Amino acid sequence: GEDVEQSLFLSVREGDSSVINCTYTDSSSTYLYWYKQEPGAGLQLLTYIFSNMDMKQDQRLTVLLNKKDKHLSLRIADTQTGDSAIYFCAEIPKNDYKLSFGAGTTVTVRA
Amino acid sequence: ETGVTQTPRHLVMGMTNKKSLKCEQHLGHNAMYWYKQSAKKPLELMFVYNFKEQTENNSVPSRFSPECPNSSHLFLHLHTLQPEDSALYLCASSQVGGEKLFFGSGTQLSVL
Description:
The complex is a heterodimer of chains A (111) and B (112).
Chain A (H helix, E strand, L loop, with lengths): L3 E3 L2 E5 L4 E7 L6 E7 L5 E8 L4 E4 L2 E6 L4 E6 L8 E8 L7 E2 L3 E6 L1
Parallel strand pairs in A: 2-11
Antiparallel strand pairs in A: 1-3, 3-8, 4-5, 4-9, 6-7, 7-8, 9-10, 9-11
Chain B lengths: L3 E4 L2 E4 L4 E8 L5 E7 L6 E7 L2 E5 L6 E7 L2 E7 L7 E8 L7 E2 L3 E5 L1
């Protein structure tokens, strides 16, 4: 199976919270990332979390990490139409520098 | 603007053509990468260059040939491609050992 798995689609109403989930397999991962890709653009680093943290908050974004279950989530509060994009989860294993990406979750924000 | 520029943005080529993709970074990074993005599949790492030296080649077919003349420029030379090679090709850069990648906007390639 894939090293990093995400659900492919998420639809959310404007103003609601979005939660994007990700599972990974490498327990030695040191960093875990969320990248955002808007239409016609490359990937943009949104936020990242060190593996020794459980939570990181950055304005409307909250990242939760459950190392025991190898589960990472991204919560977007007060979702806006500009949040419509593909969100990629990625990990970088210990003693490596190469990111391993998931297939991306397409988030659609409806009015 | 991420500091990583890719050209062209779009490319259509026949299976017998030869073309090149170009990537340039203005971030002072010393590692550059080529990724392939196909719909609903994880990004596939193709090549990695650290300090102009190729350090990774993920079993990429020889019809893809990378070139890194210096730390700021990266090329991907294409020849005799197949229709299944149609995808978005993304360039990225980072500091060697750094944990953050900066991506270009990609070249959308269609092979007819």
